[in-house]
Amino acid sequence: MTFYIQLKYTGKNFIRFIIDSNTFIKMKSILILLLILATGTGCHSQIKNQHNMQQPASQNPYYSRTDTSKLHVSNAEWKKILPHDLYAVAREQATERPFTGKYWDSDVRGTYYCAVCGNALFISDAKFASSCGWPSFFEPIRTNSVIYKTDNSLGMERTEVICGRCDSHLGHIFDDGPAPTHKRFCMNSVSLDFDPK
């Protein structure tokens, strides 16, 4: 058996593909196999990320929501303590994919803390809905909660936001936020812990 597939190309010309039944069955089998592999890989990755993000802060001796003293901990030490995904963002300045973090669209009231050290960073009253795909705030909870640093990576000049206590990367700040500050603190969800009111 032979299959003929015709596609109209320009109104005058036709493209004709001739596929025999054996080739059609092989192509169909390969497509199904690729779909199964893609789905399985995505599920495994999601489960792995959920596991990494659920490591309790109690395994981190530097984590405290009451101690505000400056921390001086080496990246080698943080690497032993932090989950892989948190270490990659907080200590290596990686960025989580947009619209994937657990807080990007949350409207629950409460306080956001640094996931590395427990420093209070933002309150939900300063959070606003933005279309960027990351949790966005217009101001920190205290002026010394965060520190600003020039970031010239990726061929552009941006302002990096780091934790005022442990110097971990949180995200970046932009001048397109709402009143009263007109600032948008664009944060990585993995860098944040949340305590609902």
Automatic annotation (TrEMBL):
Signal peptide: none annotated. Its cofactor is Zn(2+). It comes from the Bacteria. The keyword Cytoplasm does not apply. It catalyses: L-methionyl-[protein] + [thioredoxin]-disulfide + H2O = L-methionyl-(R)-S-oxide-[protein] + [thioredoxin]-dithiol. One of its GO terms (molecular function) is metal ion binding. It holds the Pfam family SelR. The keyword Metal-binding applies. GO terms for cellular component: cytoplasm. Keywords: Metal-binding, Oxidoreductase, Zinc. SUPFAM superfamilies: Mss4-like. Its EC number is 1.8.4.12. Residues 75-197 form the MsrB domain. One of its GO terms (biological process) is protein repair. Belongs to the MsrB Met sulfoxide reductase family. This is peptide-methionine (R)-S-oxide reductase.
